[in-house]
Write a structure and sequence with these properties.
The protein has eleven helices and eight strands. It is of the alpha/beta class and about 325 residues long. The chain has a single domain, classed as NAD(P)-binding Rossmann-like Domain (Rossmann fold). The longest helix has 29 residues.
């Protein structure tokens, strides 16, 4: 596995003139310095001084996707991502991989959590000049989720952003033909795992004024029959879980938000669409480009007014907020 790339050596954070808290070089330096500056966890506070400048920079760097930022999400109060620690589940492929790379482009330090091999994502993050570590874990296992948060704390001493993206599944049978164990596994991965990861990360997120972004699906929103009911039910639960947590900022200084995409252009989705019969495929909308999803994720992270917020992404339509 490619070792983590350390992006800044011996530098101080541009935001608070404090050293990044987990830099090994700085940690070893602190052993020899008479009065080392006390490491401090950055908070997800508003970037009140530089929002316009940062936005211009993002636009120049191509970090803002086609069509620019969704109007309904625009807000002048911006939250910093640079130097913040982000845990992204399902980061080995597809949407999770795209989110991890996008966050790295914004300067976040990323923990890539996946059942699969994250080498490709690590290489992509490194190419973008970012820093990431992989954690291989089956996130349906409570102990593995716990281990993920522990590794993150050991390595980075904090969590600012949690993106619960691992989801889907490869059903061999679907409810009601699936066994209890089979459909329970789908509920676990798509609902229980994000709830547990959020719960276990809450103390760390609370300490930083952090944010959670859940990746749901329009399967959980629509009212038409759906061929994979347990997946639809889990995603519906994830959406309602998000809105039910809208008051968390007042209790724990943590925001929980959600993106609800229709088909998204990932290799897995393309393979699923390609396997459909022509008439079934013709009834499906064109998949959404990945940058539309990553735009929405970045916006939910950066706008600190958005709590319990759910953004629906449909092909060819403007992002729509379910909650305002
Ligand atoms: N692609 C779409 O069309 C689409 C549409 C709506 C919602 N979504 C949702 O977006 C998320 C990502 O979808 P995608 O299309 O990128 O899928 P993907 O299959 O490309 O990626 C999912 C990743 O999650 C990982 N994963 C699966 N089970 C895991 C487990 N038990 N523990 C840890 N990691 C595990 C996989 O290894 C994979 O890397 C899912 O939650 C999915 O439900 C996708």
């Amino acid at each position: 596995m490619t070792p983590a790339t350390i992006r800044r050596t011996g530098s101080t954070s541009p935001h608070n003139n404090q050293p990044p808290t987990c830099h090994p070089h700085l940690v070893s330096m602190s052993l020899t310095m008479p009065s080392p500056p006390k490491p401090r966890i950055l908070r997800c506070g508003r970037d009140s001084t530089r929002p316009a400048r940062r936005r211009d920079r993002d636009a120049r760097a191509g970090l803002i996707g086609p069509g620019g930022l969704p109007e309904l999400l625009c807000h002048p109060g911006r939250v910093e991502i640079d130097d913040r620690v982000a845990v992204v589940t399902g980061a080995a492929a597809g949407i999770g991989q795209a989110i991890a790379c996008r966050l790295a482009g914004h300067g976040a330090r990323i923990v890539l959590a996946d059942l699969g091999d994250c080498t490709q994502t690590l290489d992509m993050v490194a190419d973008a000049g970012g820093e990431a570590i992989p954690v291989t874990a089956d996130l349906r296992d409570d102990a593995e989720v716990q281990r993920l948060i522990e590794i993150t704390m050991e390595r980075f001493a904090g969590v600012h952003i949690l993106v619960n993206c691992a989801g889907g599944g490869q059903p061999t049978a679907r409810y009601p033909n699936a066994t209890t164990a089979q459909w329970s596994a789908v509920l676990d991965l798509n609902l229980r795992t994000p709830m547990l990861a959020t719960q276990l990360a809450l103390p760390a997120l609370s300490a930083t004024g952090g944010v959670v972004v859940n990746i749901a699906s329009t399967a959980g929103l629509d009212h038409a029959p759906y061929a994979w009911p347990e997946y639809a039910a889990a995603k519906a639960g994830l959406i309602r879980y998000t809105t039910a947590m809208a008051d968390l900022p007042s209790r724990m200084d943590v925001r929980v938000t959600c993106v609800v995409p229709d088909w998204v252009r990932t290799p897995r989705a393309e393979a699923e669409l390609a396997a459909m019969t022509a008439d079934v495929r013709a009834a499906q909308p064109d998949p959404i480009p990945l940058p539309v999803v990553t735009d929405a994720v970045i916006e939910l992270i950066r706008n600190d007014d958005l709590s319990g917020h759910v953004v629906v992404l449909r092909p060819g339509r403007e992002p729509r907020s379910l909650t305002s």
